[in-house]
Amino acid sequence: MTQRTALLTVIAxxxxxxxxxxxxxxxxxxxxxxxxAVCPSGGTDAPALPANLLGRVVRTLPVQQQMVALTxxxxxxxxxxxxxxxxxxxxxxxxxxxLTGQFAEAHPAAARAMAAAGHGIANHSYSHPHxxxxxxxxxxxxxxxADQALRTAIGTAPLPFVRFPYGETTAQQVTEVNALGFAxxxxxxxxxxxxxxxxxxxxxxxxxxALDSLTPxxxxxxxxxxxNERPTILDAQALPLIIDAVRARGYEIADLRTLLAAPPA
Length: 265
Hints:
Layout: H1 3-22, E1 57-58, E2 67-74, H2 81-91, E3 96-99, H3 101-106, H4 108-116, E4 120-123, H5 136-154, E5 161-162, H6 171-179, E6 183-185, E7 189-190, H7 203-212, E8 218-223, H8 234-248, E9 252-254
Parallel strand pairs: 1-6, 2-3, 2-8, 2-9, 3-4, 5-6, 7-8
């Protein structure tokens, strides 16, 4: 072997080593890493929310007038619903009902009765979990599943309102539901009627809690059922007394749907 041939052989060997080190272990071109999932993945078909409902927890109506809003959560049974709907009808008072998806699936006739009576229907999650124990994807699933269950039960789109289970809300969760097209609507006061007499509550105590927080824009939270399926629903019994008492103090019963009207410029 001549000196020139030997040199060429060494160069060829070095080039082969370099090429081998640069190539992927599989011998194939490496695939690009998949893009990270976006959460939440997108909104619903609900109209855009007024700007004053975004980026915040709504606990009162933004009014100066003496108005209160009546709201009910429905996550258990519908024991008190007939009484609640009759009282609201007789008093010509509007209300908004926040339903879980599981409630809507278990009691579709009850959900339709609320809507047929002219009241607002809104989202209270699908299964009423603690949202801080879920991932963003899990929280999105809860909101979307509930939205679909409500649409199926009442035959139309519910209000673009979410009320978090247990009232546990964070700035991150508000941002997430806003991105899905929902406003976070909580409450000024809860009557605690759902605790029932076993939890130390009475009808009068429920009424007193509602009146102790009476202020322009108060949002009152009540429940149509009982977590232990007890036959006595204190909020249903307290409702006519609450309506009479707030009206006697010069307050009107406002419809929570007025939140969807854009504020004056």
